[in-house]
Every structure is written in C-alpha cells, then in structure tokens.
Design a protein that fits this description.
The chain is α/β, with parallel strands linked by helices and 218 residues long. The protein is built from 8 helices and 11 strands. A 5-stranded parallel sheet has the order 2-1-3-4-5, with helices on both faces. A 4-stranded antiparallel sheet has the order 6-7-8-9, with helices on one face. Strands 10-11 form a two-stranded antiparallel ribbon. Helix 6 (152-163) crosses helix 8.
C-alpha cells in the first residue's frame, strides 16, 4: 500500500517514514504543502498522512483543494492543536481522521489501516483467493491450513496481486507499491520473486501475460 506523508518536522518525518516502511507501506515523504493537492491527484495513494502546520500551504487548505476537486483519497490529519474547534475545522475540511501530537506510532498505524479498509470496501481482515489466504494487518499468509513464512518483499508482492485479484498488475504498479524495491532494478529480479511465490503457493496460482503483467485468480 502506498502512502503520502506530508510533515515538515525533519525528526518526526524521518521517524514516521521509518515506522511506516517497517509496516510495509510504500512512503513518499514531502515537507512543503505547496503542490501536495496536485501530487495526490496525479498519484495512486491509498492514504495521506497530512500535517496541518506546513510551509507553503496549510493542511486545511490542501484538504479543501482535494475535496473541492472531488478527490476522496483518505486523509489522516496530524496537528499539535487539540481544541474542539481545531478538530471540528479538520473534519469540516474533509479529513477522515485526526490525530493530535504527541501520539504513539501504533495508534497511527491502526487508524491508517482502518481508513484504507473502509475506503477499499474491504469488510474482512483476511483476503482469500482459492486456497490462499492473506491477513495484511497481521502480516500472515496461508496455503490451505498451513501458514507460509514470507519475506517483507514477498508479502508485499503477494498483497498487491491479491488485492487486485482477477486483474493483471503491471510491473510499474508493482515497483510503485513495494517500498524497498529499486525501480531501476532489472525486471529479472521481479521474475525471481514471482517464481518464489509460485513455489510456495502453486505454479498455477500466478498467471503471466507477456507485456502486460501478473495476475492471481479470484
């Protein structure tokens, strides 16, 4: 899952970027609010973590631009302001959730995942395609009744494919969605990871359409 983090505090931003990547999110970190609305419109983010107090343009201004333009990407606002009036202003601008600093990273992760689930209309915490099941929040995968151990990259790749089950996913979309993936890496490395998943979940589990991408069946 791909996130946009907008936070001008270098120490907090670096800490959040590290924590989000460890939770297997792909993260773009921006420090200035000037062009954020346009960036969100152009990119395919699953959610935005947006500080209110930003240089260039405030988080509330960005929210009004996004919602005024019809962009419904889930947004979690971060702020040091904790009065009722401030919270109401955040929600009235179109934000989906509001977190007051200081906060625990674990709470941020729980809130983000809840926003993403609601937005993607995923009612269950487990995604299933045939005999393969995936629990993104718990970072667990099964083939039938047997749990399968996966690396972070393997899990991220499998999650992208299973969230898009029935649709061929392009290499570009896969590169974009994996936080620790070097976009300049030779495509043969992706083939290696696909081969590993096929060995773990069955040769027929992942289909390849040359020049298009990869697909798992629903």
């Amino acid at each position: 899952m791909r996130l946009l983090l907008v936070e001008d505090d270098a120490q907090l931003g670096e800490s959040l970027e590290t924590a989000l990547k460890r939770a297997n999110f792909a993260v773009d970190w921006e420090r200035d609010g000037t062009h954020i609305a346009a960036q969100v419109d152009m990119a395919n983010y699953d959610a935005v973590v947006l500080d209110i107090g930003l240089p260039g343009k405030s988080g509330l201004e960005i929210m009004r631009e996004l919602r005024g333009g019809g962009n419904l990407t889930p947004v979690l606002l971060l702020t040091a302001r904790d009065t009722l009036e401030d919270k109401l202003a955040g929600f009235e601008s179109g934000a989906d959730d509001y977190l007051t600093k200081p906060f625990e990273v674990e709470e941020l992760l729980v809130r983000l995942r809840a926003l993403i689930r609601r937005n993607s209309k995923v009612a269950d915490l487990v995604i299933q395609c045939g005999e393969v099941k995936l629990a993104p929040d718990q970072r667990q995968a099964w083939r039938g009744e047997d749990e399968v151990e996966l690396t972070a990259t393997e899990f991220g790749l499998l999650e992208i494919l299973m969230r898009n089950a029935g649709t061929f996913v392009s290499k570009h979309r896969i590169y974009e969605g994996l936080y620790d993936w070097d976009k300049e890496v030779d495509s043969s490395v992706l083939h290696v990871y696909i081969s590993r998943l096929r060995k773990l979940f069955g040769a027929e589990f992942i289909e390849t359409l040359r020049g298009v991408g990869y697909r798992v069946r629903k």
